[in-house]
Amino acid sequence: MALLCRSTGLLLKHSKLLPSAFAATRQCSSGGQYQYILVDKKGEKKNVGFIQLNRPKALNALCDGLMLEVGRALDAFEADSEVGAIVVTGSEKAFAAGADIKEMQNRTFQECYGGNFLAHWNRVSTVKKPVIAAVNGFALGGGCEFAMMCDIIYAGEKAQFGQPEILLGTIPGAGGTQRLTRAVGKSLAMEMVLTGDRISAQEAKQSAFELTLAEGSRLEKRLFHATFATEDRKEGMTAFVEKRKAAFQDN
Ligand code: CO8
Fold this sequence. Notes:
alpha/beta, six-stranded mixed β-sheet, four-stranded mixed β-sheet, 11 helices, 39% helix, 16% strand, globular, disordered N terminus, binds octanoyl-coenzyme A
């Protein structure tokens, strides 16, 4: 089933069920094992693995620690024979507002490239069980990429998808340019990546069609690393942190 879901690519659905899913996840308990996520098993048979991203003050920005925890939770659900499918969700305001800009702000090209930054961030795309992203609010940058790594996206009325990295002087780094193209087509994907504009779930659904993925993701990750060699990437992230407009110099 996971293979079937994966081969059909991204499926965006408006779901009236989404608010109740969020209500259920609000009651999750992390059991003290996790700092950045809530993890539980749901359903009468406890056969649905639930992961809720839980950094509300940072709009669920994806820091390295959070992604490590998501990887650990996914590993546990993958190994749990009771679990048949996994749901990843955020809050009503944000699925995730992107990779953590404050964490990336002072990183250098050497650190990104040498440390293979983002190497473990795509664990969700290799899970064999079906993974559903229940998205409401912001799914931006890495948040949009994370959702697109899941097999199915159920999007609520307030969901907003976008790849605003260009506004920070960088580019998507975890398959965004490739998966977005498959999800909404080349034209809209290019528009979104080049302008940083966001789209609603309805717009995404209307534009959905599929292309191929392959090599592009690897190239994209290297180009993402390369943006850390530019002054503009540093300026873009610093401006965000300092809550001012970026003064890009094209270098
Ligand atoms: N990183 C760190 N902190 C964040 C982020 C983020 N991505 N997004 C929001 N926050 C923080 C804000 O700094 C703020 O913190 P504080 O209260 O301490 O100042 C808090 O969350 C609330 O944010 P705002 O006050 O800005 O809330 P608004 O409702 O006014 O605006 C927005 C919400 C529009 C979402 C706005 O916060 C925003 O533009 N955020 C940045 C979005 C963005 O640029 N995302 C892309 C990041 S780069 C990226 O994702 C690279 C991907 C690499 C691959 C990842 C693979 C999975």
